Amino acid sequence: MPRRVFSQVLVMQLAIITGVTALVTGLFLAPLSAEFDDRATQRALAIARSTAVQPGLPEQLRSPGGPSADGPVQERAERVRRTTGASYVVIMDTRGIRWSHPEVRRIGRYVSTDPARALAGHEVRHIDVGTLGRSARGKVPVRDDEGRIVGAVSVGIAYDSVRERLLGAVPELLAYAGGALGVGVLAALLVSRRLQRQTHDLAFSDISALLAEREAMLHGIREGVVALDGAGRIRLVNDEAQRLLDLAPRDAGRALEEALGPGRTADVLTGRVTGRDLLTVRSGRVLVANRMPTDDGGAVVTLRDRTELEQLGRELDSSRVLVDALRAQDHEHANRLHVLLGLLELELYDEAAAYLSEVVGVHRATAEQITGQVRDPQLAALLVGKATVAAERDVALRVRSGTLLPDRLVDAREMVTVVGNLVDNALDAAAGTARAEVGVELLPIGGTGVRLRVTDSGPGIPPERREQVFAEGWSTKPPPAHGRRGLGLALVKRLAERHGGTVRVGEAPGGGAELTVVLPDALAPDPAVADPTVADRAGAAAGGADGAA
After folding, report:
1. Which of 91, 154, 95, 145 lies closest to 122 in space, CA to CA?
2. Quick check: helix, strand or coil at residue 522?
3. pLDDT tens digits for 27-36?
4. Who wins on pLDDT, 164 or 77?
5. Cα(110)–Cα(532) distance, rounded to whole angstroms?
6. In terms of domains, do 524 and 377 share one?
7. Three-class SS of residue 90?
8. Does residue 401 sit in the same domain as residue 522?
């Protein structure tokens, strides 16, 4: 079974505490020992200097009596030793013979260490082991009034090394070290217990496996997931969220508003717009967002793609409107058939024929007019259907006389979405007004562009609210059965901007609203214009015909 995080962290902390203690002790004692040695030898040298310059000492070293245990030199040296606390004060002549020593039996004998450097006029200090054990020594020459060397003074201070002192203090050090180690163990235990609670007593291998499973799950689910930190930066974004929001892996770590840009999507994800199942439009996609705050001040946002569902809902709304229109038409056709049947029963055959021609001609004229001006079959069928619905709502849907759209749409489905949303909004605005009318104009511009203009006879849109109509969720109408309103114009704007186009709201010439959409690349290039060889072959053929004539 893998060792738990609790035990692993505890062992590691104990090893770190022990290692750091040993390292710090070694680094501390090494310079400390050298410093203590230097101070001890300096003190021994200072005592030797003060002894060597005492008045009368050179004359006493020259006295004919020689060294003596009760002589003035011994007395002088012992007085200095007792006063300074030195281990010994040895005064010697130029031959290296002791004139003083704490052990009187050694007086008159040669010194135990080489006095040559001191007798040569140099000051000497070092740590040495002599007859009195380990000591810090200082040696200085003794000079007479004329500067001649007449002897030397050697002072020793009993001195134990730092190592010996440390070994002597081992019991005390162990007590302190044990106390410190106990405190460290207690701290490590508390930290490990906290980690145990936070990691739910899992092993490092378990945590690593959970992280791997989390990554696989986040990038495998079909919902977008975006994790934000407390500062609003992107902490994590899975593959589906990258697709829905047009983000890249390098956007992780960036501020959300910097990566997405200003707009409702950023407002929803950062929490400035609150609620459940919030709708927003991003790059032509209708998204449902839910935001869950986290304990660290951040949040996790889930995103679902509702584009197809929204389009299906709109198609169902259109189908419901069309069913209602067909039901009304059924009644109208029944009434017309009753009129036709009555005329036939009254044997008014000419009147019946004229009535039938009038009824059929109106619908045929409308369809022929639209298909003659709008060559794309899907878009023409949409407008024919919208004209029928408009007639049932007592609204006149007119395709402007200047309309002429060739059958070269790059994406007919998106154009149907744009035209359908604008016409639906215009019908809702114009319905119930006097001389209700909706106008549609489609014109090619620049070879590949299309300009769509939709006008209505409704109340219009005040200038201060013309930008607000493109915000997701904004609408003056009650919500439909399948969901919420306020997405049609927002979706139109996103589709236009995705194709590099624009959407503008203005006032129609006769009053009401006018919405103009410009799509610069909605049409495929005209092959006859795009391929210069077609014109060249046509010119060559014409030239050949002229020559033959």
Report:
1. 154
2. coil
3. 666 666 677 7
4. 77
5. 123
6. yes
7. strand
8. yes
Please name the residue that has the structure tokens 């032509």: 284
95 and 237 inside one domain: no
Helix (H, G, I), strand (E, B) or coil at 441: strand
Q: 390 and 508, same structural domain?
A: yes
Task: Please indicate, yes or no, whether the overall pTM of this predicted structure exceeds 0.90.
Answer: no
Helices (H), 437-531: 488-498, 527-530
Contact between 125 and 154 (Cβ < 8 Å)? no
Handedness of CA 115, 121, 126, 132 (dihedral sign): positive
The encoded tokens of residue 344 equal 């036939």
Pair of tokens at residue 97: 């013979």
Domain that holds residue 125: 5-166
Residue 455 DSSP SS3: strand
Residue 427 has phi, psi (to 5 degrees) of: -65, -40
Q: What residue spans of 53-101 are helical by DSSP H?
A: 57-61, 72-84
Q: How far apart are the first and last CA of the chain?
A: 102
pLDDT for 131-170, tens place per residue? 656 778 899 999 998 889 999 999 988 876 545 555 555 5
For residue 284, tell me if it sits in a domain.
Answer: yes
Query: By three-state DSSP, how is residue 308 classified?
Result: helix
**Rg of the chain taking only CA atoms, in angstroms:** 53
What CA–CA distance (Å, rounded) separates 89 from 79? 9
Coil vs helix vs strand at 92: strand
> How many domains would you assign to the chain?
3
Helices (H), 393-531: 412-430, 488-498, 527-530
Which residue, 137, 166, 195, sits at the end of a domain?
A: 166
- Pair of tokens at residue 229: 């930190």
The CATH number of the domain where 278 resides is what? 3.30.450.20
Q: Angle CA(264)–CA(268)–CA(269) in degrees, nearest 5?
A: 120
Amino acid symbol at 100: S
